[in-house]
Amino acid sequence: MTTRRDFLRILPAAATIPFWGAPRARATQRIILNDASRLSPTPVAKHVTIAKAETNDLIARIRAELKEAAAEHRPAAASVARHSMGGQSLPRDGTAISLDGGPLEMDTAAKTYRTSAANRWWDVIRILDPRGFSPAVMQSNSDFGVGSTFCVNAHGWPVPHGPFGSTVRAIRMVLADGTLVQCSRTENAELFSLAMGGYGLFGIIVDLDVEMTPNVLLEPRFERMIPEKFADAFTHAIDTDTSLAMAYGRMSVSRKTFFDDALMVTYRPVTNPPATLPPVASAGKLTGFQNDIYRAQTGWEVAKGLRWFMESRIGPAITGSHATRNSLMAEPVSNLAQNDLRRTDILHEYFVAPERFGEFVAACRDIIPKSRAEFLNVTLRYVAEDHTPVLTIAPVRRIAAVMSFSQETSPEGEIDMMQLTEALIDRVTAIGGAFYLPYRLHARRDQVEKAYPAAAAFAAAKRRYDPNLLFRNAMWDTYFA
Fold this sequence. Notes:
single chain, alpha+beta, Vanillyl-alcohol Oxidase, Chain A, domain 3, 8-stranded antiparallel sheet, 31% helix, 24% strand, globular
């Protein structure tokens, strides 16, 4: 007979008998990718990097990855540097494709160049500069990807241009079914308009034909004024001075004197340029010290006042030396990298018609100084009217305000930023303006639709060209799905 003690002894072993033939579950560590915000950790099923591939090889590898992703019923997205801030380049549980470098060919007679979408702007400048040329328009920092710039339709500070897409003659991209198509304003024009500022939701850009312009030596002029006069002065200079090549503005950011002072900086060709231009360089006289002061602004209002004094008073006195067009655009955004893991830099960008700029300034004065986030900088740029993109940022010409905040990487910091963003968007859209989409996904859907009236048509076209929704990212899921 089996005693009670024997029964209790063999019971645990007997309980495992049904599982002896079952396979053991394996713990697999997932691949987690993030973007420039450091607030978008996203698991992906696969991450593949395609580096310095020739065009035909790039196309073949993209097709293979898309075919596999479609067979596995998972989304796909491509990017170069993932400098977006709301997961626009991240396909959750999907295939993330990173592109890194590729060929570039110049046509000096046509003043165009064909570049791989995988090149960064520094790669473009490095090749164009020795030949005496410069990108007609590029994103304002040189470590962004060219294809990515087209997908977000970013702008720069050459004037009197519109966004980068306005200087793109044609693109080639791979669609969801693997088809390679060429698109321009006359060939597959609808797809061209959807892909320009389409956040990679219609295909993966392979290469682009882009306009270039002669590189020239420029000299700056500095003018201080009250912010309420900035828009008139800015547009008047652009409209009346054909020699003007580049221009931007800044405003004071300390809480006590918030947006009380403005600076307009304009660049024109020097009168007697040398026969040979100096090679491209990206560091000015004050670069290192200015970056230290820039970081010191977080939590220290004195540093904000000191930086503005340096920029508006000292800077014009000692940085009036000449610089080439390429050197002015070659500064990498990495020079201002945030190293404090308790905080992260978050960008906002708003677009308002020049005649409504005063109302925009008033809205910012009402909202921003009260927030928990530290406001570090605003750069004002000109964006010419551009009707080509379906999701256009400039249905009329606009002044763009690029804003940099330092945010706590905490729930409280995130809540504060959400509330701040929502309040600013409400005020901006009330005066007919728009906000830029490649940042944190804090807008309400009704705000997206108000800023971008073609949002519904954009989503409907997406479903026509990509019925299985192969190309997806966090922005699609949040704003359009």
